[in-house]
């Protein structure tokens, strides 16, 4: 597997290079891929700062590759590795799903699937969209594979454990009687907070272009995934079939779903509040700000609930291993 890790690491870093190169060119004043008359040419300091931030974010992916492949990465605290990977998964997750669908729609719709529709907004040349989103997709797949190998080696026994472990003392897995009820209350609150955003997504799906409708539908898909997975984690037991289920599929669904909700909600909110999103054609009305805030808050609440349940499952697994 060491050779596979090295190949995946090289592919991940190579997939970062087109995006990093373009951003560094733009930060230095270049106009590569920016057509004449694009709003990006007059975007000012705000877009420069956002471009610098995205360079730092993509550069962090290179550091994550090292952490996932070098021996010292196994000695890092779990949260130091998990948090930036959760953010990366949240931001790249919709791209790796929506972009291939957009390409397929372009082929079937007669545009050739070459990203030409993307260039119609006048922001960037169409080849830039294709190059960048192809790089993001490859980056997501390769980085995700590295993370799977890392998690398998470090926490494989826990993730292969039963979703509803039959260990002594697990009938009330959340400790004192009121704790589980409070967590269910927080779960209900997260779902209620997400409703305004979900309604907004449904409305935007009826108004936008085909590409934007695909993206909106992808966001809704991840939201359903997050809610269903966290709800499953909060259960104290299951059916006979559920008793044989493993923890990792539900945890992976909760991981990706909450990451997309929280991280994209936060990113869109940052774009709207900073003014950079307006340059890119992002919706920045008061209703949109409310929707982005609800999206981010719901994702964070669901992620917090999932993390607490995972810590409990880890303790349960540790106790069960000694029984």
From TrEMBL:
Keywords: Membrane, Transmembrane, Transmembrane helix. Signal peptide: none annotated. The chain crosses the membrane at residues 7-27, 47-68, 80-107, 127-151, 186-205, 217-235, 247-269, 289-307. The keyword Transmembrane helix applies. The keyword Transmembrane applies. This is LigA protein.
